[in-house]
Amino acid sequence: GDSVTQMEGPVTLSEEAFLTINCTYTATGYPSLFWYVQYPGEGLQLLLKATKADDKGSNKGFEATYRKETTSFHLEKGSVQVSDSAVYFCLLDDMRFGAGTRLTVKP
Amino acid sequence: GAVVSQHPSRVICKSGTSVKIECRSLDFQATTMFWYRQFPKQSLMLMATSNEGSKATYEQGVEKDKFLINHASLTLSTLTVTSAHPEDSSFYICSARAATSGGYEQYFGPGTRLTVT
């Protein structure tokens, strides 16, 4: 069945460092792909999405490109901030989540 | 943006009793709702997909007689944990799908923390 594999972490970075969180998927057809974020004590929020191959989703400095050839949707940010500390989830459009990656950004 | 509410936010119940959790889409109609459980520091595990007016589709390994899901209207789905036991203690999250011009959007509730004593 469809599934998503996500780099589990945890990931600890210094402020202004470059972030990559890997996400690959297995699916029949061409699913939509999402990144959600869960800040401490808060509910899940949509961070960005892409609905077809080569789409790039972006929000709050985060980007992810839907790459059909590598079945990937890696999340990137050029310069992380302390406020980016959260858990990040990759999601397939059949609503299956990746394992989640806990990011801690230190000042 | 669209809002999904859950009630209650926290519930403590005794072992052997049943507890009902409500999930409401407040300003949109949701033909499909999803129920998840999340253990501490773990990902969300999809339990079931609920379509309005029809029986829920449960994921493999989820006991449908234990986790009763009802989706009686386009704005309300309920999850009833029957004969709860301590191992059912968890964080339960619902999400609702809203149709948009570009396809759909998915909105998540804030979650319900269930503690079974």
Secondary-structure map:
The complex is a heterodimer of chains A (107) and B (117).
Chain A: E1 3-6, E2 11-14, E3 19-21, E4 23-26, E5 33-38, E6 44-50, E7 56-59, E8 62-65, E9 75-77, E10 86-92, E11 101-106
Parallel strand pairs in A: 2-11
Antiparallel strand pairs in A: 1-4, 3-9, 5-6, 5-10, 7-8, 8-9, 10-11
Chain B: E1 4-7, E2 10-13, E3 19-25, E4 32-38, E5 44-51, E6 57-58, E7 67-73, E8 76-81, E9 90-100, E10 103-108, E11 112-116
Parallel strand pairs in B: 2-11
Antiparallel strand pairs in B: 1-3, 3-8, 4-5, 4-9, 5-6, 7-8, 9-10, 9-11
Q: What would the principal axes of the Cα set say about the shape of chain A?
A: globular
Order of helices and strands of chain A: EEEEEEEEEEE
Number of strands of chain B: 11
Spans of chain A of at least 5 consecutive residues whose pLDDT stays below 50 are none
Summarize the structure in words.
The complex is a heterodimer of chains A (107) and B (117). Chain A has strands spanning 3-6, 11-14, 19-21, 23-26, 33-38, 44-50, 56-59, 62-65, 75-77, 86-92, 101-106. Chain A has 107 residues and is mostly beta strands. In chain A, strand 5 (33-38) and strand 6 form a beta hairpin. Chain A is globular and about 40 Å long. In chain A, 37% of the residues are buried. In chain B, a hairpin with a 2-residue loop joins strand 9 (90-100) and strand 10. In chain B, strands 2, 4, 5, 6, 9, 10 and 11 form a seven-stranded mixed sheet that branches. A four-stranded antiparallel sheet of chain B has the order 1-3-8-7, with no helix packed on it. The chains are: A mainly beta (107), B mainly beta (117). The A-B interface holds A 32, 34, 36, 42-46, 51, 89, 95-100, 102 and B 34, 36, 41-46, 49, 93, 95, 102-103, 105-106, 108-111.
